[in-house]
Amino acid sequence: MEWIEILKCPSSGSNLHAAEDATIKDLNQKIETGEIFQADGNPFKGTLEKALVSDDGNYIYPIINDIILLRKDLALVKQKGNLAQNSISDEKKLVQDFYNNRGWFTDEAGNYEDAVIFEDLRDVSKEYLKKCHDRVSRFLNPSGKYMLDAASGALQYDDYLQYSENFKYRVCVDLSFQALREVKKKLGDKSLCVLCDMTNMPFKDNVMDGFVSLNTIYHIPKDEQALAIKELYRLLSVKGKGVVVYDWYKHSPWMNFWLLPFRGAVYIKNRIMGLFHKVGGMPAQSKMLYFYAHDYTYFKNNLPPFQLKVWRSISVPFMKAYIHPWLGGKKILDRIYQLEEKNPENCGLKGEYPMLVFEK
After folding, report:
1. What's the sign of the alpha-carbon dihedral 339, 341, 346, 347?
2. What's the whole-model pTM score?
3. Would the N or C end of the chain have less CB density within 10 A of its end CB?
4. pLDDT tens per residue across span 209-223
5. Rounded to the nearest 5°, which phi and psi values hold at 267?
């Protein structure tokens, strides 16, 4: 467990240590007598097999299936005075529930539902998408000890594995326990899986040789997105490198132009459906997943210095609308890729998906 050296308690900031067998036995006896409490103030029901304990002894973090639960509201305590004051926000819980219950489960074809809903899985797009995934590696250190992946999800594409290929550990953090279960199946002991909040990372300063955060930040509440990226930067070691892939969405002038008729049709459809729901007395449809996209100025004004590059200048709706084999789709994508390679900064600013590239 050499990786314990990089962890810290998300509640107190103190060091953590692995609970020894005698400690686990003592804790389980206290659980039986109702002396160990969870965040809601109720006695914890269950049995600990492994756990990390803060050096001050106030906080206990269970390890389940080699996944470390290192979130304030998941800490177990012996005194109610040490309970977390707040649970995760409704926005974060929406994301957590979607990926625990839907997003990281596969269909009969072996595709995760997240990809089925949000990605383009057609053959015509595969080569272009792979080349975009490969771009990330250019801006990372080629090797090191710890590569942070925040939030890792289920590592749904094999292309993602290259980022940590020559690192000793891939440190995967996520809100979803199901995501981290999938990671463990794929990476085993190479992965350090931590269930935590990206706005309060349970790691010491300057301990990661690199990080990636792919299509994640915009699922964090809008007022906390800059904080989450600052946390990633805090963890980066000297000479470490990191990449954030973001989505400008309606701040992309190119996609606004090409998708205007489609977005107009969706807007009209949603207004009509909303009217039907209102007239029929039905409740409004609940959100499937939280999403909020800032513009470039927000990050420029609130983050440490970064380079702006392009990951992909076109969105999935664009690809599904305009890219088809019978319209020479692969040739169009090849041309788009060449344009992105020629002018990565402009494509990153005006296209759909930028890369924010950091280096300490």
Report:
1. positive
2. 0.93
3. N
4. 999 999 999 999 999
5. -60, -45
